[in-house]
């Protein structure tokens, strides 16, 4: 029996770690514990409730106007106490958040093994996305076992000197999550969404909140969205507005009260995935949506200049448009008005998984600790 503590703190992490937590609970040779940092509080709690996960530890670190330094300090101090009590054999962290890096560092200080889920994603620019790119690289340096979602991610790790035997290609756990959340006849709890004519309107789902887009980036995105909805009478926008006031104030000032523009607080996981399933296309600066939308056949315009997920770009289902007003508007109008251009993107192949990533990760952990000699069938696309 090996004790594994899964650590996460934000809504995107929680969505992707939830199916893994559920798979760990099934394994007879693994004692599974969950620790949340609550780097994001309200949005994290939505996911915990959705997937019926009750954490064993909740560090509850979120503070108003929190800084990266403050988050890091509180995670390190909180996990020091958790590790002293639990003495885990391994911790699992996910992706690129400050919780991820601080969790890996806290485990390293106690000489506890680190497993990095969604490992190996890179833009090769330490400030884009910030601080996510360096969170990934630093966590990769601390990790003992790396769960890469794609061959490209594995190749990045190999170039950084990670031993091949310590890397497993698993696919992305977000695809596992979507197997349990998307329903064809879904009825939204958010009543405003039930009033939207998804059949006859081209509904664009938008999220934009990343730190590097604060200020001019968000302002440009809002200007482009205004142009898109004004120039296309068959378009409606659903903007899921991040709760951070730096983002929320700008969005409501620029888009509030506009016809055919719906500004909503972030939805729970199930509503988000089903909105994505019903919408025409997605515009986002999120990382996770670049994986989720292609799984549902939805074109994605990425409101960033670089992405650590190049596979969907090369497969043709995702396009980088940055935050230039003219670029965003022209690329959106192309998809809205050109059926062939839309069809090419919507039918592109999703390279990110088959719904079995969590199983592969648990199989690899059992092999790593000698609990099983069964071969791990890696994800190959």
Main features:
WecB-like, UDP_GlcNAc_Epimerase_2_dom, about 375 residues, about 45% helix, UDP-N-acetylglucosamine 2-epimerase activity, Rossmann fold, 2 domains, alpha/beta, seven-stranded parallel beta sheet, isomerase, EC 5.1.3.14
Molecular structure report:
This is UDP-N-acetylglucosamine 2-epimerase (non-hydrolyzing). Belongs to the UDP-N-acetylglucosamine 2-epimerase family. Pfam families: Epimerase_2. This protein is of the alpha/beta class and 381 residues long. It has two domains: 188 residues, 3-Layer(aba) Sandwich (Rossmann fold), CATH 3.40.50.2000; 157 residues, Rossmann fold, CATH 3.40.50. It has 16 helices and 13 strands. The strands form two sheets. Strands 3-2-1-4-5-6-7 form a seven-stranded parallel β-sheet, sandwiched between helices. The chain has a six-stranded parallel β-sheet with strand order 10-9-8-11-12-13, with helices on both faces. The longest helix is centred in the N-terminal third of the chain and has 19 residues. It starts with a strand and ends in a 13-residue tail after the last helix. The mean pLDDT is 94.
